[in-house]
């Protein structure tokens, strides 16, 4: 494991606008620095004070018990997450405030107030109890992005059942494996889900999965699309029928702060998916505090996080953190380009969205579709933008800033992981100046570092491995049923320190720049380059919308650099452009990063959460058959088309 060189040059800087700063929860860099200092000098005192903002049924005895690498936060404390998200607000003027505003793909809408949502959650909690679900049982959730998905999650939290949400785009096999690993007793699903006008047969997938998942005794089915679906008597139940019979009173079960709230499977690059386990108190605290300070959320906001509830972003920042803050969270069911590529902008205008949180993969798609689509809509309600999921290329950041944000909205580029549960490295929008492509500075209580292969901190400007040196409240507690794998995956490489798997560099201002997964690093003539930096150089060419670079074995250089490039819509391919792009990279970065080969492609292989799968591109570049797991691939046809495209 050698070190990583950083070659990206990016010097633009954006100060928080003064009007934004004045109204923000954290108003200056000095304020951030003072709070950060305290949070790392006295983490237990800091987190203890912050935890006062939650409702506890029993106060904790100790803030942290750290038996590396196993942490317990708020030891001895009891609370209930659904009570913190609902009952707490229903007792105030927020009772009739919109908690959840929803738009379906066909354009139908629903609004649930805090009062409405509490009643629905209580009723579904009673439904689960009537099906025999007790505290500690696992419940699978395999649903479209409809309000019932949030209701099901909160209902589990209310009675202490541990939920495991499986993204509705996953296959029956993927669902089966996850339900078996979790030993779920119930699955909550829908007849189908709308996606780009078509119907995804969720219930049929559940039926197929359950042929091999004997732990599941009951299936609750929401009627969404109205298609005929087969029903297994005794096992399958309609949501609306069970709900009709259920009482809207259900006391919130006081749960230990370390009670497992959810298991979420993350596939990683190889091997069986890992069941990342998150617990209750520390998770809720860091999720809700980041929500407040990073998204600067206020009662007046209509906040939209575009992630699916099948991902951790959907857990933390569609459902739990916004509701814990008494905010209005907006949820959309469908695809961003249905019926037209302006669907997101139509939604922003229609609902007056003020804070928008989305992913680089979506932003790059918007760049490719062209700015005529957002230009058709009034986006002036927006005041803050966010991004998460991959490094954002500086040019995509600039586009987001000017075309979507009208140049007036700060952008929070938030680095975190399924494993971290909540945001870890991020600007605070009223306090920290942003630089396109940088996640800027650590959140309170988070101590990241960039280290070399021996675990020593590297000097500013040098690339290395991103680690977290101290435990944080929303950290994963283990891998479900496999504590050895937890230790092995995260805590072995640098003993006693959490290894993120990402490469990064810290600049002279202390800002973090994530360079991509270390598994993807390219080794060209002894230079180890992060993928993000070369890709960003390509994306800074005005005709390029998206790029992925990988190494191909090369006798002379170790690896040759192969770039897969997607052009903006309507740009014709030609040899001249290939040469121009190679020279463009040389001009931006230097000769070491000159691509040896450029392949144009209509689309890149992505995971279902939108991350570029460079592992598959490496196989294609080397002319190998694809080895390893492709079940997380979003669109299989992309692979076949890429194989045909050769320079
Ligand atoms: C990996 C975690 C956590 C929400 C969704 C992804 C990459 C995430 C950023 C960012 C650069 C980022 C990292 C990380 N990543 N956010 N702002 N800048 N890279 O969760 O699927 O567990 O993926 O996504 O590589 O390790 P996940």
Description:
The chain has 647 residues and is an alpha/beta fold. The chain has a domain at 523-646: GMP Synthetase, Chain A, domain 3 (2-Layer Sandwich), CATH 3.30.300.30. It is built from 20 helices and 31 strands. The strands form 9 sheets. A 7-stranded mixed sheet has the order 6-5-18-17-19-20-21, sandwiched between helices. A 5-stranded parallel sheet has the order 8-7-9-12-13, sandwiched between helices. Strand 10 and strand 11 form a beta hairpin. Helix 4 runs parallel beside helix 11 (312-324). It is globular.
Which key terms come to mind for this protein?
alpha/beta; seven-stranded mixed sheet; binds 5'-O-[(S)-butoxy(hydroxy)phosphoryl]adenosine; GMP Synthetase, Chain A, domain 3; single chain; 647 residues; 32% helix; five-stranded parallel sheet
């Amino acid at each position: 494991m050698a070190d990583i060189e950083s070659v990206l040059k990016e010097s633009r800087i954006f100060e928080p606008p003064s009007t934004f700063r004045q109204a923000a929860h954290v108003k200056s860099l000095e304020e951030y620095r003072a709070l950060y200092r305290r949070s790392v000098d006295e983490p237990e005192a800091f987190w203890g004070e912050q935890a006062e903002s939650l409702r506890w049924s029993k106060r904790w005895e100790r803030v942290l018990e750290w038996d590396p690498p196993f942490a317990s936060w708020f030891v001895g404390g009891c609370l209930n997450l659904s009570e913190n998200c609902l009952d707490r607000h229903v007792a105030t003027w927020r009772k009739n405030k919109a908690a959840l505003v929803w738009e379906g793909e066909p354009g139908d809408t629903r609004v649930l107030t805090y009062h409405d949502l509490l009643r629905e959650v209580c009723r579904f909690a009673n439904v689960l109890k009537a099906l025999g679900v007790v505290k500690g049982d696992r419940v699978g959730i395999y649903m479209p992005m409809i309000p019932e998905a949030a209701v099901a999650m909160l209902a589990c939290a209310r009675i202490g059942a541990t939920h495991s949400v499986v993204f509705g785009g996953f296959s029956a096999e993927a669902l089966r494996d996850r339900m078996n690993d979790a030993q779920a007793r119930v699955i909550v699903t829908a007849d189908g889900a709308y996606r780009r006008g078509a119907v995804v047969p969720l219930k049929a997938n559940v039926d197929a999965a359950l042929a091999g998942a004997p732990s599941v005794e009951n299936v609750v089915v929401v009627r969404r699309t109205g298609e005929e679906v087969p029903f297994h008597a005794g096992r399958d139940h309609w949501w609306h029928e069970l709900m009709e019979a259920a009482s809207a009173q259900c006391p919130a079960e006081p749960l230990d702060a370390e009670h497992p709230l959810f298991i979420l499977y993350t596939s990683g690059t190889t091997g069986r998916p890992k069941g990342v386990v998150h617990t209750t108190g520390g998770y809720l605290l860091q999720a809700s505090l980041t929500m407040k300070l990073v998204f600067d959320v206020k009662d007046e906001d209509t906040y939209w996080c575009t992630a699916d509830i099948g991902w951790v972003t959907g857990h933390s920042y569609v459902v739990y953190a916004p509701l814990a803050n008494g905010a209005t969270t907006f949820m959309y069911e469908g695809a961003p380009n249905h019926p037209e590529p302006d669907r997101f902008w139509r939604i922003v205008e229609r609902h007056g969205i003020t804070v928008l949180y989305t992913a680089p993969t979506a932003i790059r798609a918007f760049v490719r579709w062209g700015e005529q689509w957002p230009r058709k809509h009034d986006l002036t309600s927006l005041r803050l933008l966010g991004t998460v999921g991959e490094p954002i290329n500086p040019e995509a950041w600039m586009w987001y800033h000017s075309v979507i944000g009208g140049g007036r909205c700060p952008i929070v580029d938030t680095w975190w992981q399924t494993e971290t549960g909540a945001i870890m490295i991020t600007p605070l929008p009223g306090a920290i100046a942003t630089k396109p492509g940088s996640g800027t500075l650590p959140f309170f209580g988070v101590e990241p570092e960039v280290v070399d292969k021996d675990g020593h901190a590297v000097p500013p400007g040098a690339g290395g491995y991103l680690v977290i040196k101290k435990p944080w409240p929303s950290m994963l507690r283990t891998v479900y049923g496999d504590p050895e794998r937890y230790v092995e995956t995260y805590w072995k490489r640098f003993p006693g320190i959490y290894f993120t798997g990402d490469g990064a560099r810290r600049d002279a201002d202390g800002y973090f720049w994530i360079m991509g997964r270390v598994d993807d690093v390219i080794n060209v003539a002894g230079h180890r380059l992060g993928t993000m930096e070369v890709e960003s150089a390509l994306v800074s060419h005005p005709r390029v919308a998206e790029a992925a670079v990988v190494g191909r074995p090369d006798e002379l250089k170790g690896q040759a650099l192969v770039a897969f490039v997607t052009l903006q819509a309507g740009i014709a391919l030609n040899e001249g452009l290939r040469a121009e792009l190679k020279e463009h990279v040389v001009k931006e970065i230097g000769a070491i990063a000159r691509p040896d080969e450029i392949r144009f492609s209509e689309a890149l292989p992505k995971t279902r959460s939108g991350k570029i799968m460079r592992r598959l591109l490496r196989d294609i570049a080397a002319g190998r058959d694809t080895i390893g797991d492709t079940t997380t691939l979003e669109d299989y046809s992309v692979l076949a088309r890429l194989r045909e495209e050769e320079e």
